[in-house]
Structures
1.
Amino acid sequence: MSTASTTAATSTGTGPNLPVESWPLVPPPPGRTVNRAHPESNACTVHVAAGVCIPLIVIFASIRLYNKVVINRGRTWDDYTFMLASICAITYISLVVALLDHGPFGFHIWDLVVANVKNSSLLLALVLEGIYGPFIWLIKLSVLLMYLQLFHPFPWARRMAWLGIIVTALFYFSTTIAKFGLCAPRGRVSYIEAFSAPRCNNTKKLGLVTGYFNVLSDIYLLALPVPCVWKLSLKPKKKLGVIAGFMTGIS
């Protein structure tokens, strides 16, 4: 067992004489009371968010599919990536809900002991960390492919769209490899030891960088169509309406 678990057990007064399965993961913060009999869970918040997001994804994906297949009777590459991204989004949300319902996640870590943490739960958490980047990239890819179709008369916009595809692909797939490299167990090391290792803590910084990149890339997606729309032969109010439509659709 890792040194971190031994330290946590000693600092909380449980002592190393108890079975390893009874050791707490970390000591509680000052002023917080340990409640291992009935730990407080934040899973309800995720359940509500999932209950709202999944139906919205299904509704909007169905509308787009009906419009392309029945009304326009034509499909482009961005339609395929959009549908794949929708399926991936639903899959990801469902796996997060399953992880909260059948794993140690969603609770305060000081309310948990070693026995609460199973290798299967940590494996699923590692998988979720790994597939997050490619799934997000699929969403951005579908938008950028749509730009390639819509802004064909603007060569500079097509070049910017291709640049966005390449840069986002490099970033999200490289961070996926980094997450697996930092937190995946090596040799006979268990998942809980791998997750508590100092190198796995670096994923927090990686997550912060990913958050900044998500915001910047979203701004890029929002700003890219604005010059193209502004050059259209439309009244200013209609141009603003089209731009607003792009922003609403992306967000």
2.
Amino acid sequence: MKLMRVQDNPLHISLFPPHSSTPGAYLEFSFILNSSLDIFDLRRRDKNRVDQDLGLLHAIDERLSVWGWETGTGTRFAIVLDVWGREGIEGGRGVGEAELRGAFRALQTAYIRLLQNPFYVPDEHTPMAAREGRGKGSQITSRKFIEEVERIGMVWRPGMSNV
């Protein structure tokens, strides 16, 4: 799962089994997620789009696919879905667009709760602020937010409408 601001700087990336223990997985999934940024931009220009759910952004191969969600303020959420599942067993079933909405809504709710925290300042999490020494780096460090994202990632299953 990845959360990005309007400037496409990554705010948070979480990996889940079986990929969380794989050497080099963080870098590999960073590349996969960054490759979806152009597709976010293309979908954003679609004048007929009325929903935040951008659906399938692109399929990497028969196993991995990237799905997107964008808020009205331009905050982007991306989920890389492994159809082989947590066990890494080939032959897992595909997932439809509607099946991911619950996970995206839960992620957006967790982010909104983070923004409601008076001690969290979103502008401190930009590359420019970090470069100038006035920011806290681009990554979200809120323990509560990270735990909620981890919970969502571990609990979500295809077909769940509420996470």
3.
Amino acid sequence: MKVFSSEYLFDYSWEEVSTANWRKYCPWNDKSPHVIAVDTLSREVDPSTGILRTERLITCHQQAPAWVISLLGGSNTSHVYETSYVSPSEKRVTMCSTNISWANILRVRETVTYQPDLTTSSPGHERTRFTQDAKITALCGGWQKIRTKIEEASVERFSENARRGREGFEAVLEMSRRVFGEEREREKDKMR
């Protein structure tokens, strides 16, 4: 098993980040063209905790090496199952995802959290801490060298996708702030 971990500070409030998170794969994000579809399977609020729980299926186009597809079968379309929890009282978003496609060969378990960063935030300049951890396990029986190579290559690809994902989400956050700011100004003008 290999582990990928990263942290990042977004110069946006938790409210902005947790709201924009639902638009992470929209047309404003040109860094994630591999995401073909995001389907919401279920969404419910726990009446006792106020936590919003959402299950989604994310469909991606991942370019697998041709030799892998010819040897193992499958296609370049893959599916990821994601469960997210939004706790408004704790100001915490937790997203847990796992691959469905190729799960008999490679298991990827990712956990992402967004929380206010209290150490660097100040009034009028709130920041949100993003943490990401992924456990990547190749399931190739006793072939340790092959398993290690698959895990190393997967961590490298995961790292690159994570970097592009953060860049794309920054664009979504920027556009969201602008669009919602313009809408607030229009509403203020109507009230005058």
4.
Amino acid sequence: MATAEEALAELITSYHELNGNYIDQLEEPPSPLLFMQYVARNRPFIVRGAAVNWSAVSLWSPDYLTSVMRDSTVKVAMTPSGNADSAVRNPVDGKLTFAKPLEVSRGPNPWKNSRASSQADMDAFPDRRKV
């Protein structure tokens, strides 16, 4: 009988063999039926130009967000490699592990100096050898 890790590895392999490593790119939003087909298959897709007319595209800037959010605090989910809420291989023992993000509260103005803040937050992750 296969172990849970072997079964998961086989499931992932089968999924990739059936679905390939591509993301569909649509020129217009999908019909409700097509959308539900993507959801049912758990497949991502990109709608090119879908956000062009959104006011956020032209309106949102660090200055605008600062004026609107003022002293608000926001939660930011951080991961060392961007794969939160997914199965990843533990670098210490090689086993598949479910990764959860480190949630950091930031405020006010959490988008200013984000590069320096992000590095400081990433330094807060526990030493991987101790996980």
